[in-house]
Each structure stands twice: as structure tokens, then as C-alpha cells.
Design the sequence.
């Protein structure tokens, strides 16, 4: 990939920008890009500092694995340096715990903003929080060796980093329940067949495939892509008639804009 000066480079996250394409890279391959509260804060910051002309964001992980999930140090009594351990968090009030988890979720929410299209390129393990981070993106290109798994239930927990909604939307309730409750691995063939993956490629072609997809996305006018994304994102929560109405309103905006008509 193009070598660029990073806009942000901290706590296992690097953000670079090349014109209208931004790349967010997880940069701790020695720990298989295991996640921590510090990494989540850095991901949240990456979303906040994106230049306004960025249209496509590519998410990738260095090394053999995209992200092996939550760093297990979180479950030790000492936790991370300078951070409350998860055990300490559990002893706090319900409101405090809810606020803390909500802050963690911010790292996973901005990827679906209507003004962006996000692409996760996923190789090797994408487990737990890693799976949910890939699910946070609009599109997923996966390597032939990908191994998705939602392991929270086997630890006595639930997936709480915004992954349940996109998972059910993509594969349906029954398969989502089975994947989460068993914690089993989902490999490349099943991921593509069930809609978890848009494309499967050899691992050494992930970056090239992301560049090609980004170029294809950039070929359409930005406002048309933004309006289309908003239409599709809201389709499942609308009735058929409500979606027809939304289509008419969006098309009216596009036609007025193309004609140079302002309200």
C-alpha cells in the first residue's frame, strides 16, 4: 500500500489518508491485533479525525490475523495499566457499567456513517471483538484462510460491541444464534455463501482487492452513493410503502441537485 504519513498512530491503530480513501490499520501483529480499551479509544478518535473529503475507509490488520478479539488481560485482576479491570467494572453501578460499554461501542459505530463506505479486509482469525469489528463495516473482503467466530457466549458473556444487529441482518436469526451460541468457526466458503463476505481472495491479494473495490465505489458521484446507502440502510426498518416514499424523496433531492435547483 502507499506509504503515507499517518494522521493518527497510537495504541495499536494507524490512520493514513490518500486523497478520498482512508486506511485504518491494526498494528499489533505480535498479539494478533488483540483489542483493549485503549485501542477502542484510538479507533473512535480515527473516526473523529477523518478529513471531510474521505469517501471510502479500508480497515485492515497487520500480520496473519485480522484480530483475535479481546485481550484476555482484561479479565485478570490487574487488567491493563492505567485502566480499571473488567472485574472492577463489574463491581460498579449499573449506570456506570452501561456508560463504559457505550463508550467502548463508539469504536464500532462510525464505520456505517452515510457519508462513508467502509471495507474490512479480513485474514486469519477474526474472533469475538475482531468479528464484531469486521461486522461494523459496510463490506467485507476476506482471505481464503479467514476464521470468524463469536466466542463471547463460551466465556459467559454476550456480544456487546454492536455485532449482533449486522450479524442477524446478514445471515438471519437462526444461523446467527447458532454461530454465537456454539462459538464455532465460520470459514471463507460459508462466509461468502451466507453474505458475511462480499468477496473471497488469496491472502496476498487482500490489499489489491480493497483498492479495486474502493476505485469502483469512487466511480459514482458521492451524493448518489450517500443517498443510496441511506436508502438501503433503512430499508429493513421501513414498510414497503415507507420505502417507496423514501425512494421518491431521495430521487427528488438528486434530480433537483442535478438540475441546480435549490430550495
Sequence:
Amino acid at each position: 500500500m502507499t506509504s503515507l504519513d499517518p494522521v493518527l498512530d497510537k495504541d495499536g491503530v494507524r490512520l493514513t489518508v490518500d486523497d478520498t480513501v482512508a486506511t485504518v490499520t491494526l498494528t499489533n501483529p505480535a498479539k494478533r491485533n488483540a483489542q483493549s480499551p485503549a485501542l477502542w479509544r484510538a479507533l473512535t478518535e480515527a473516526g473523529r479525525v477523518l478529513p471531510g473529503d474521505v469517501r471510502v475507509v479500508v480497515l485492515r490488520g497487520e500480520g496473519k490475523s485480522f484480530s483475535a478479539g479481546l485481550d484476555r488481560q482484561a479479565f485478570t485482576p490487574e487488567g491493563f495499566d492505567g485502566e480499571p479491570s473488567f472485574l472492577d467494572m463489574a463491581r460498579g453501578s449499573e449506570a456506570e457499567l452501561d456508560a463504559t460499554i457505550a463508550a467502548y461501542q463508539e469504536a464500532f459505530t462510525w464505520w456505517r456513517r452515510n457519508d462513508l463506505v467502509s471495507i474490512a479486509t479480513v485474514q486469519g482469525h477474526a474472533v469475538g471483538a475482531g468479528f464484531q469489528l469486521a461486522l461494523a463495516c459496510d463490506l467485507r473482503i476476506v482471505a481464503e484462510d479467514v476464521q470468524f467466530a463469536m466466542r463471547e457466549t463460551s466465556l459467559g458473556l454476550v456480544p456487546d460491541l454492536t455485532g449482533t444487529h449486522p450479524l442477524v441482518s446478514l445471515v438471519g436469526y437462526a444461523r446467527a444464534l447458532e454461530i454465537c451460541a456454539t462459538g464455532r468457526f465460520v470459514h471463507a466458503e460459508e462466509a461468502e455463501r451466507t453474505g458475511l463476505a462480499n468477496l473471497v481472495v488469496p491472502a496476498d491479494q487482500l490489499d489489491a482487492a480493497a483498492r479495486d473495490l474502493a476505485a469502483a465505489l469512487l466511480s459514482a458521484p458521492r451524493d448518489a452513493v450517500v443517498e443510496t446507502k441511506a436508502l438501503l440502510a433503512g430499508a429493513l426498518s421501513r414498510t414497503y410503502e415507507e420505502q417507496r416514499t423514501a425512494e421518491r424523496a431521495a430521487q427528488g433531492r438528486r434530480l433537483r441537485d442535478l438540475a441546480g435547483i435549490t430550495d
In short: The longest helix spans residues 240-258. The mean pLDDT is 95.
